[in-house]
């Protein structure tokens, strides 16, 4: 197993979009720290909404609607090599996102080497199916990462554990209250309206099974990947299973 940053990121991955459930925000800030340690300047942001980051995640939170946005952003990137940007503050302690067109302008004008975008929401749950208008992924994304938390395996298909359980049921064939199975995740992985929905054709794609923190969970991830290879549909360029908490992961090529 290797660390997550070196496994996922290549030199040409200037813009990374993260979708799905089960660790998007944690992965975004883990990758940001990897860039910072390498002396690069990175913007973290969202096209939907995220919780306002803790100071350990990001020292700088800058709103597009505030005065002197670009000068403040430049200062933060030069001083700390990292800033989190959003459009406005929401009443539930969250940061409202920017549209892809707004982020495109920021990308052109700000002196950042990398941009990491959380491109959909999941209410903190470990499994979801994309909504009709989701995910909101810029077409100029270089690396597309779809996430699932493996602690959803064996849980019932209900709103307590799954974001949009009816959509998951329609894609996987599960019924409400059914336990979530490896085969169901395999079906969600390859379905056109599943995990890879919204991935730009030019982006490198990855499905990341998070919370694989013991041998049982890692075996489950391999079972899901093997089942996906027997199903019709789309597949990522590569699969990853591991643990953001432990900063370890294993790659499995799609072929």
Map the helices and strands.
Layout (H helix, E strand, L loop, with lengths): L3 H5 L6 E6 L3 H14 L4 E5 L2 E3 L9 E3 L5 H12 L1 E5 L1 E3 L3 E3 L3 H10 L4 E5 L24 E7 L15 H8 L9 H9 L13 E7 L4 H14 L9 E6 L4 E6 L2
Parallel strand pairs: 1-8, 1-9, 2-5, 2-8, 4-5, 9-10, 10-11
Antiparallel strand pairs: 3-7, 6-7, 11-12
Structure overview:
With 255 residues, the chain is α/β, with parallel strands linked by helices. The protein has helices at 4-8, 24-37, 69-80, 100-109, 165-172, 182-190, 215-228; strands at residues 15-20, 42-46, 49-51, 61-63, 82-86, 88-90, 94-96, 114-118, 143-149, 204-210, 238-243, 248-253. It has 2 domains: 4-40 and 113-253, Rossmann fold, CATH 3.40.50; 49-111, no CATH class. The strands form 2 sheets. It has a 9-stranded mixed sheet, with helices on both faces. Strand 10, helix 7 and strand 11 form a beta-alpha-beta unit. Helix 6 (182-190) crosses helix 7. The chain is globular, with a radius of gyration of 18 Å.
């Amino acid at each position: 197993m290797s660390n997550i940053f070196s496994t996922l990121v290549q030199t040409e991955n200037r813009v990374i979009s993260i979708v799905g459930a089960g660790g998007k925000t944690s992965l975004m800030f883990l990758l940001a720290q990897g860039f910072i340690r390498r002396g690069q300047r990175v913007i973290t942001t969202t096209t939907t909404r995220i919780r306002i980051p803790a100071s350990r995640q990001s020292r700088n939170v800058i709103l597009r609607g505030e005065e002197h946005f670009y000068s403040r952003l430049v200062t933060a990137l030069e001083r700390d090599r990292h800033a989190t940007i959003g459009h406005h503050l929401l009443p539930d302690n969250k940061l409202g996102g920017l549209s892809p067109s707004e982020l495109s302008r920021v990308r052109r004008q700000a002196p950042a080497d990398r941009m990491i975008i959380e491109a959909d929401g999941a209410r903190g749950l470990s499994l979801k199916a994309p909504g009709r208008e989701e995910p909101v992924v810029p077409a100029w994304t270089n690396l597309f990462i779809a996430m699932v938390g493996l602690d959803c395996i064996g849980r019932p298909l209900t709103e307590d554990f799954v974001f949009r359980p009816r959509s998951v049921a329609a894609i996987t064939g599960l019924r409400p209250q059914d336990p979530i199975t490896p085969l169901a995740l395999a079906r969600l992985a390859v379905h056109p309206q599943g995990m890879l929905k919204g991935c730009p054709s030019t982006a490198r794609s990855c499905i990341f099974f998070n919370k694989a923190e013991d041998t049982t969970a890692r075996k489950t991830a391999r079972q899901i990947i093997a089942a996906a290879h027997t199903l019709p549909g789309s597949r990522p360029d590569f699969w990853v299973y591991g643990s953001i908490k432990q900063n370890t992961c294993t790659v499995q090529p799609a072929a």
